[in-house]
Amino acid sequence: MCQSTTHLAKKISKRAKINEIDIEKDDNIIEENSDDKSSIISEYSKDIENINATFDIMELYSHLPQLSNGQLDLSKIKDAQLMKTKPNRGKGYTAGNSCITEVVIDNKPTKPLLDPGSFCSGVGKSFCKTCVPNFEDHLLPIDGIKFNSESNPMKALGFFETNVIFPHINGNLRITVEFVVMGNCSSTHFILGNDYLIIYGIDLHKNKDRYFTIGDNKSQKFAFLPFKRQIKVNKVAPVSLELERFKSEQLNEAEISLHLSDSQENELSSLLYYHREAFSSNKEPLGEIIGHEVDIILNIERPYPPLVKRPAYPASPKSREALEIHIKELLNLGVIRKVGHNEEVEVTTPVIVAWNNGKSRMVGDFRALNTCTVPDRYPLPKIQISLTQISQGVYIATMDALKGFHQNVVTPRERKDLRIIGHCVVYEYLRMPFGIKNAPSHFQRMMNEIFPEELSEGCLMIYIDDIIFCSKT
C-alpha cells in the first residue's frame, strides 16, 4: 500500500521498463512481498558462515611458521627489510660474523661456538684435553650412531657430561651438557649444537644488536665475541726490491725518528709495507670501507617539496674558480659524479665556498635536507671521560683518517638524495659528504664496531675520525 496522502491509487505497480530498457529480475533479490524469506535468509547465512570459517582458518595459519609445499601463491612477493647495509656485489661474505661466546667449563674460561647447524654438541679430543685434562676418566661409550661432518665420517670416542656456566652481571646461568668427543675433529672450540640449544631454549638474535638468551628470561642477554682475523706480521718477508720501492715512493715524506737503530728502522719499514693498503697511494688515493654503507631515511614522501630542491647560490668569479678546483678533485677521487641530462633530479643542495686565511673549502648547505632526515641518535664519546682516559697514558699516539667521511660509500638507492648544484651543473655524492645530519653518528658507530676489543681494553680512544692510542708502557 502507498502511504502517501497525495496519491489516489491504493497500489503503485513497478514499471518493468526504464527508457524502453528491459529489467531482468534477479532471483537472489528478496522482494518486499515475498512470503518465503526464511529459506533465502538461511541460505545466505550458510554462505556467510562458510566465508567466516575460511577467513578464520586463513588467519589461524597465517601466524604459524610457513614451509613451502608447492601450493603457496608466489604471485605476491615483496623485498625483505635489510637489518644491515648490504655490502657491494662480491663482498657479501664481509657481513658475516661468528657465534662464539665466553663461558666457564671445568673452572676454566673457554670460548664455545653456538652452532644451530650442528646436530649435536661435540668437541675435538685434542682441544678437550687442554680444557678438561681428565675428561677420559668420565668418558662414557656411545654405540650404534654414526656422526658425519660435511659427509666426512667422524670418529666418536664417547661422551662426557659437564657444566657450562654463562657469566652475567645479573646472575650467572648454568646448564649441563653432554659433549660427544670426536677423535678426528680439529676444531678449537666446544660446539654447543642444536640439541642443547633446543633443550634450554637458547635463542640466537643476529640483527644489529647481536646477542642470545637462555630460557624464558628474554631480558637477560648474553653477548657474542666480536669476530677478528688474526694477522701475524713476523711471518711476512717482503721482497727487498719492492720494499725499497715502497720506501722511495710512499715513505719519502715520512719523518722517522733518529733515535731508532738500523734494525728498528727496517722492522718499522717492513711493518708499514705489510700494511701498505691502509695508507693512501697514487693509484688508490682514497680508501673504501666495506660493510658500513651510508643509508639515509627521509621523513617526507614523493613528490618532494620545493624545500629540498634549491637553486645554486650566486658566487663571485674567485669563488667559482675555487669551486671548479674542488669539484675536479672530488671527481678524480671518485667522491662525486656528474648527473646526466636525462636523469630525474628531485633533490638539489647548493654549495658555497668558505675562505679562511686565503684557503678555500667547499661546503654543502644541507640544512634543508637535514630537516627532512630521520635522526640517528647514536651517542658520541663524552669529552670529559676521554680526557680522563688519556691522562692515564704515558705514551700517546694520534692518527687522523684521511678524508674519513669520504671513505664511506653511499648506498645506490640513497645517492639521488645527496645531489649538489653549482653553476647549473648537478653532481651526485657516491661517498658520504661532510655536513649531512647523521654523518658523525654513522662514522662513530662504524669505528666502534671495527675496534671493539681495543676500545674495551682501554688502549684506544676514538672520536669520530680522530684515533688516539694511549699506553703506560
From TrEMBL:
<dbReference type="InterPro" id="IPR043502">
    <property type="entry name" value="DNA/RNA_pol_sf"/>
</dbReference>
<protein>
    <recommendedName>
        <fullName>Reverse transcriptase domain-containing protein</fullName>
    </recommendedName>
</protein>
<feature type="domain" description="Reverse transcriptase">
    <location>
        <begin position="357"/>
        <end position="472"/>
    </location>
</feature>
<dbReference type="InterPro" id="IPR053134">
    <property type="entry name" value="RNA-dir_DNA_polymerase"/>
</dbReference>
<dbReference type="InterPro" id="IPR000477">
    <property type="entry name" value="RT_dom"/>
</dbReference>
<dbReference type="InterPro" id="IPR043128">
    <property type="entry name" value="Rev_trsase/Diguanyl_cyclase"/>
</dbReference>
<dbReference type="Pfam" id="PF00078">
    <property type="entry name" value="RVT_1"/>
</dbReference>
